[in-house]
Amino acid sequence: MKVDVLLGLQWGDEGKGKVVDVLTPRYDVIARFQGGPNAGHTLEFEGQKYVLRSIPSGIFQGDKLNVIGGGVVLDPALFKAEAEALEASGHPLKSRLHISRKAHLILPTHRLLDAANEAAKGKSKVGTTGKGIGPTYTDKISRNGVRVGDLERDFDALYTQAKERHLGMLRGLMTAEDYTAALTKLETTEKEWMEGVEYLRGFTFTDSEHEINRMLKEGKSVLCEGAQGTMLDIDYGSYPFVTSSNTICAGACTGLGVAPSKIGRVFGIIKAYCTRVGGGPFPTELMDETGDKLCAIGHEFGAVTGRRRRCGWIDLVALRYAIMLNGITDLIMMKSDVLDTFETIKACVAYEIDGKVVEDFPYSISEGVKPIYTELPGWQCPLGKMTSEDEFPEEFNNYLTFLEEELEVPIRIVSVGPDREQTIERYLEN
Ligand code: GDP
Ligand code: IMO
Ligand code: MG
Q1: Catalytic amino acids?
Q2: Distances from the Cα of 376 to the Cαs of 55, 273, 333, in angstroms?
Q3: With a 6 A CB cut-off, is 320 part of the ligand 1 pocket?
Q4: N or C: which end of the chain has fewer CB within 10 A?
Q5: The pLDDT value given to residue 302
Q6: pTM of the model
Q7: Axis-axis angle for helices 316-326, 394-407 (nearest 10)
Q8: Using 50, 70 and 90 to split pLDDT, how confident is the model at 305?
Q9: In this structure, which residue's CA is closest to atom 5 in ligand 2?
């Protein structure tokens, strides 16, 4: 058996959580491979809405095993809040969630460092989610991290050592006044965090690389759930305005200990348009009424921070690049219904940079990039209640065909609303 991978092809928030939930009945195991509580994956069904941060989106459909892989960074305090809320809403977790010993812990001081690093950057700040993601991955790479597996070993010593290191760094980054205020606040957050650690100890820690490979050998099927999006990848995204993990398909190999030869289908999730939250370049961003309209109809406010998401037209230059990096086999298009009322829809097919037409995503898109658009007629009717592709209006079919021709990958699933049921399969085969 091979693992299938599902990931975002834009700047995150494409609708990954919804699709993982929809696909879960076809798999035995759902595994998160990178990122942490910077993610906010929204699921809606039976009139209820859930936002998942660290827990895989396979938790609502039957007794599937959900795995938090070694490439993930975990904040015990946020994990406790998320898990307790799920348990309280009637979704027991303990028997269905395994956590990799190799996952790194986000310490309270990592969050302080995240804020201090951002403040030091001033105007060029990344606009992080403030969850300590960057500093935690920094410690991992510099071999100073504290891992879930350390909770079974010499956790106390490692925690104290890391905290002292971080306080030294914070003293250098902050004014004396801010540092004192931060120390006072730390007392409360540390207490909550330690309660989270005790709660976490109640879960099953595993060597998830062995667990997943064993299950593959037994013929079990695995779906890997990505967080963030390809354009936020640490190596290939719009650096330095990126997150600190490999969000691309290769991240599933390193984050779960699955060999490249074991990767099967790679599902690329896209919005019918494009959004970005936080700083950084966004060539097709609309700073006008059309952008405001996309934001209003699409409810484009961050699931984690509540920040307004920047909105723009779909960017096929960036998408072709993302498809190449991930080896996408199937596309899944979300939020199609958001475009229902638009008279015309634009798609960026190339960039103009310094008077030259550029089709390959360039090294830098920070300045002087002008999108070149193809304009298509809108369908101007509601898609939300449709249940099969036979009902699609001609203009919507034309938009799908246009995207498939430009991107050279079939769009297998179309989402026409936030609810689990508002999902339409095309080319049904399995
Ligand atoms: P993720 O981080 O990729 O899982 O995506 P988010 O949950 O952060 O953002 C996607 C948002 O769009 C959520 O509020 C979903 O409920 C919503 N959503 C998902 N699919 C659709 C869709 O087809 N139509 C509409 N209108 N909303 C959708
Ligand atoms: P999901 O999984 C959208 C963005 C932040 C910021 C940058 C770095 O819900 O799609 P970080 O806190 O990771 O150091 O922030 O990345 N970002 C996301 N944007 N969706 C996400 O996750 C994101 N996770 C991080 O806004 O620009
Ligand atoms: Mg999200």
Answers
A1: 13, 41
A2: 39, 13, 17
A3: no
A4: C
A5: 87
A6: 0.97
A7: 60
A8: confident
A9: 128
Yes or no: say if 116 and 170 are a contact pair by the CB < 8 Å rule.
Answer: yes
Helix (H) or strand (E) holding 85: helix 76-88
Contacts of 90 (CB under 8 A, 6+ apart): none
Contacts of 354 (CB under 8 A, 6+ apart): 368
Cα-to-centroid distance, 399 and ligand 3 (Å)? 25
- Which two tokens mark 164? 């002292």
Which own/partner contact pairs does 113-120 have at CB distance under 8 Å and 24+ positions apart? 113/166, 113/169, 113/170, 113/173, 116/169, 116/170, 116/173, 116/174, 117/173, 119/173, 120/173
Locate 183 and state its tokens. 């120390």
Q: What is the pLDDT of residues 205-226, one digit of tens each?
A: 999 999 999 999 999 999 999 9
Backbone φ and ψ for 155, nearest 5 degrees, come out as: -60, -50
Helices (H) and strands (E) in the chain, counts: 11, 20
- Measured distance CA(273)–CA(348) in Å, rounded: 10
Cα pseudo-dihedral 98, 332, 247, 274, rounded to 10: -130
SS3 193: helix
Burial 138-151 (b: 16+ CB within 10 A, else e): bbbeeeebbbbbbb
Q: Which residues are within 8 A (CB) of 258 and not within 5 positions of it... i.e. 6 or more apart?
A: 3, 209, 212, 213, 216, 222, 224, 252
Is residue 18 in contact with ligand 1, taking CB distance under 6 Å?
Answer: yes
Band of pLDDT at residue 428, cut at 50, 70 and 90: low
Asked whether 275 lines ligand 2 (CB < 6 A), one says: no
In the numeric block, which tokens belong to residue 352? 């103009």
Pocket-testing residue among 137, 277, 304, ligand 2, by greatest number of atoms within 8 A of Cβ: 277
